[in-house]
Amino acid sequence: xxxxxxxxxxxxxxxxxxxxxxxxxxxxxxxxxxxxxxxxxxxxxxxxxxxxxxxxxxxxxxxxxxxxxxxxxxxxxxxxxxxxxxxxxxxxxxxxxxxxxxxxxxxxxxxx
Length: 112
Hints:
The chain is an all-beta fold. The protein has one domain (9-108). The protein has strands at 9-14, 19-22, 28-41, 44-55, 62-70, 85-90, 94-98, 104-108. A six-stranded antiparallel β-barrel has the order 1-2-3-4-6-5. A two-stranded antiparallel ribbon has the order 7-8.
């Protein structure tokens, strides 16, 4: 699946470590893959994101609820030609920092 809209995405993290979103019909799970952290803007890490559509994984426990917010351009929402860069906002205002493998890891932060 190629998500080209570059709009905010509501996602969850599961107890087995994957990130994703469930589609409306709940038959598919869209896995969010963080390819790398690109840059830090206003204290927030912006991640290069890839989405991968899979069959639904409803038997897992949700650990975090998050929003992925696209990196804005000078004219607003990015166009499809821009790289899919997103920052992460977690429901308890925890920061998502890169771990030793370059993947998002939640820590209590200064977002409050």
